[in-house]
From TrEMBL:
Lineage: Bacteria, Bacillati, Actinomycetota, Actinomycetes, Frankiales
InterPro entries in the cross-refs: Acyl_CoA_acyltransferase, Bact_Acetyltransf, GNAT_dom
Species per Swiss-Prot/TrEMBL record: Frankia umida
Keywords: Acyltransferase, Transferase
Stretches that traverse the bilayer: none
Name of this protein: GNAT family N-acetyltransferase
PROSITE patterns according to UniProt: GNAT
Amino acid sequence: MFVRPAGVSDVERVAQVHVLSWQVGYRGLLARSLLDGLRAAQRVPRWTATVRQAEWPARGVLVADDAGEVVGFASLYPSVDLDQDPTGVGEVGSFYVLPAVWGRGVGGQLMAAALGTFGAAGFTSATLWVLETNTRAIGFYAHRGWEPDGAVRDDVVGGVMMRDVRYQRKLTS
């Protein structure tokens, strides 16, 4: 398994990983009808545009590639939060790994590559947002040095108000 920048040819698989990760990872946290109604084809336009807008190393999508199969991805860009300096803070906008490979080190390798990419871009810290009830993801991030920084935001997902918390970590040079 290795991590590499995503190309347009990876977009359909990125969308599939995105949907499958949501359907398993958010089960019990989001409405079942919302999760069951997700379709990868609906996410392809978004991921196509995101991949095409890559400006490495500050912006792009990394994929975890296992023998030519995309099994995870991370979307990276300068922070868009108004209280953050986009020249110094990178944001992990999306971070998902195929549920079939959870616990096999894919997420750890992908996160290490994301942090290395942020360092190459000159960022000194990184942030990400996570659903406050997503204890699995929070545990994963905490184990890798991420900490809540006190920022919260509310989001409506499937007609239900949800709260996200922001996590941050300093980057080592």
